[in-house]
Amino acid sequence: MSSESNNQSNSNPFLGKKVFFLYPHSVLQKEILEVLIANEYEVYFINDHKKLVKVVEHFSNSIVFINIDEVLPVPAWEEYIKNLMNDKKAKSTQLGVVTYNSDRELAKKFLMELMIPCGFIILNLGIDKSLPILLKMLIANEAKGRRKYIRAATSDHENTKFNISIKHTVLSGRILDISIAGMAILFESDTDIDPKMEIPDIQLVLKGIICRASGVVVGHRAGDKKSYILLFQYVDDRAKAKIHSYIHKRLHEIMDDIIKKL
User: Fold this and answer.
1) How far is CA 72 from the centre of its chain?
2) pLDDT value of residue 29
3) How far is 247 from 127, CA to CA, in rounded Å?
4) Distance between CA 19 and CA 122 in Å, rounded?
5) Average pLDDT over residues 59-67
6) Around Cβ 168, how many Cβ atoms within 10 Å?
7) What residues have CB less than 8 Å from 22, skipping those under 6 apart?
8) Are 117 and 88 in contact (CB under 8 A)?
């Protein structure tokens, strides 16, 4: 179970696309983000429009939604978007606008003149209307690719562990990577697990956040006889939210490390 979400490029359609929100509105951070993560979109927030240029040059074929309500005046945002669309290194980037400005002429300018492919999304229509539009744009622009689930690799030093009970013995180990569908694990001590073994109670510790699931072992991780792949059979909604939250935060940590080096 290698980490699908840490690839340096979005050129592989299986991996889907990274979705960046530049200067995200509070409603995006608080309410819409949760829905996007639950729908398995790989979402990042960036609060530096100059740094964003380097980011989309580095990650080809990304999707970017720009908040034109803050930092720069609208004419400056128009120029910024034109320059980004003409940037040869970032030419495959797909742009959209997110705003509270409902001016039809402004929307027409961005959609018909600048020809941004990911829409002019007006937030003051209400979440019940703006969110479906945003989701349609992500679907239309194939943000998921052929990938079903977002996966995040854990770091060696962080507190990401599991505990399971097999034949009245509690076994523990480290989570190597995780998605809502399953995880790659490494036991603390040498352990021989039968393929297709069902485990009814798995305790996950994700940086101090505890949740539970059931699962089945399906074999070894490719090229590593010491680690195993475990697929989840049942995860309740509360546990799913915790796993999704961890994945989002972990991917953001990885992205922040990459951005610092750009």
Assistant:
1) 27
2) 87
3) 24
4) 18
5) 94
6) 5
7) 46, 47, 49, 52, 64, 65, 66, 67
8) no
Q: How far apart are CA 74 and CA 169, in angstroms?
A: 63
What number of residues does the chain have? 262
> What is the Cα–Cα distance from 121 to 137, expressed in whole angstroms?
10
The pTM score is 0.89
Provide the sign of the torsion angle of the four alpha carbons 188, 193, 196, 198, taken in this order.
Answer: negative
Bridge partners, 20 (sequence order): 44, 64
Query: Look-up: residue for tokens 């509360």?
Result: 238
Phi-psi sector, 88: left (phi>0), alpha (psi -120 to 50), beta: alpha
User: What distance in Å separates the CA atoms of residue 16 and residue 138, rounded to the nearest whole number?
Assistant: 10
CB atoms within 10 A of CB 172: 14
Roughly what angle, to the nearest 10 degrees, separates helices 74-86 and 49-58? Answer: 20
Residue 245 tokens, joined: 């939250």
- 100 token code pair: 């509270």
> CA triplet 139, 141, 142: central angle to 5 degrees?
65
Query: What is the per-residue pLDDT across 226-262, written as a single tens digit (0 to 9) for each?
Result: 889 999 999 999 999 999 999 999 999 999 999 999 8
Measure the CA–CA gap between 154 and 174, rounded to whole angstroms: 9
Q: What is the pLDDT averaged over residues 130-154?
A: 93
CA 225 to chain centre: 29
- Please tell me the distance from the alpha carbon of residue 152 to that of residue 248, in angstroms, as a whole number: 8
Alpha-carbon distances, residue 231 vs 77, 80, 139, 236 (angstroms): 45, 45, 26, 14
Token pair recorded at residue 230:
């475990």
